[in-house]
């Protein structure tokens, strides 16, 4: 398998951590989707990473679809429950974490995208996205409570997704002191950060 992605994308980070936890072999190919000569649309017509190219050259895209597929490839380290409320709970945690990443990226692009002049940028739009991050972090903290992991007593996709979201905030929004505001998320993130998969795959500038 081949994974097309970037080192700064939190969605790519999520997929790479799942690949590592599942002990699956793959080739990582970096791609700058903002470059004028990017060829990502040849694999993903949406022009986004991550994109997984399977052995038969079929493309799978959207990080949620990719990680769900990867979890079926090996019984090692099952990350998504097979069904029922437990599965729905894990996928809801993933949706919440992905929403934080969505909002963070939207706010960042509104602030820095070179295709827009400063006078065209909307502070109201940025504030709206930052508000989503704040309410989502509070929801994460409340949902985690004093549990060792987001969805029970073992690490799951819930924790991987949350860890990637928090790591991206550290990368792009160091002014957000989520550790002081949510010490239980701080404790979870410190625990996740000690895993080799997180050490190797967390987004880097």
From TrEMBL:
Biological process, per Gene Ontology: glutathione metabolic process; L-phenylalanine catabolic process
Entry's Gene Ontology molecular function annotations: glutathione transferase activity; maleylacetoacetate isomerase activity
Q: Which CDD domains match?
A: GST_C_6, GST_N_3
What Pfam families does the record point to? Answer: GST_C_2, GST_N_3
User: Where is each GST N-terminal domain found?
Assistant: 1-78
Residue ranges occupied by any GST C-terminal domain in the UniProt entry:
83-205
* InterPro entries, alphabetized: Glutathione-S-Trfase_C-like (IPR010987), Glutathione-S-Trfase_C_sf (IPR036282), Glutathione_S-Trfase (IPR040079), Glutathione_S-Trfase_N (IPR004045), Thioredoxin-like_sf (IPR036249)
Q: Which domain of life is it from?
A: Bacteria
Q: What name is this protein filed under?
A: Glutathione S-transferase N-terminal domain-containing protein
Q: Which organism is it from?
A: Limnohabitans radicicola
Q: What is the lineage of its organism?
A: Bacteria, Pseudomonadati, Pseudomonadota, Betaproteobacteria, Burkholderiales
């Amino acid at each position: 398998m081949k994974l097309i992605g970037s080192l700064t994308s939190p969605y790519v980070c999520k997929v790479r951590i799942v690949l590592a936890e599942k002990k699956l072999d793959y080739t990582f190919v970096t791609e700058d989707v903002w470059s004028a000569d990017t060829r990502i649309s040849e694999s993903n017509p949406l022009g986004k990473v991550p994109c997984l190219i399977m052995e038969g050259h079929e493309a799978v895209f959207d990080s949620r679809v990719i990680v769900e597929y990867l979890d079926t490839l090996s019984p090692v380290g099952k990350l998504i429950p097979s069904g029922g409320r437990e599965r729905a709970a894990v996928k809801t945690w993933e949706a919440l974490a992905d929403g934080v990443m969505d909002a963070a990226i939207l706010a960042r692009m509104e602030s820095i995208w070179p295709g827009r002049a400063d006078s065209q940028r909307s502070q109201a739009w940025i504030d709206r996205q930052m508000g989503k991050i704040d309410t989502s972090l509070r929801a994460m903290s409340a949902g985690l409570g004093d549990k060792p992991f987001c969805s029970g007593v073992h690490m799951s996709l819930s924790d991987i997704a949350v860890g990637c979201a928090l790591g991206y905030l550290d990368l792009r929004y160091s002014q957000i002191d989520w550790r002081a505001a949510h010490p239980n998320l701080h404790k979870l993130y410190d625990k996740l950060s000690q895993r080799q998969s997180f050490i190797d795959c967390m987004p880097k500038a």
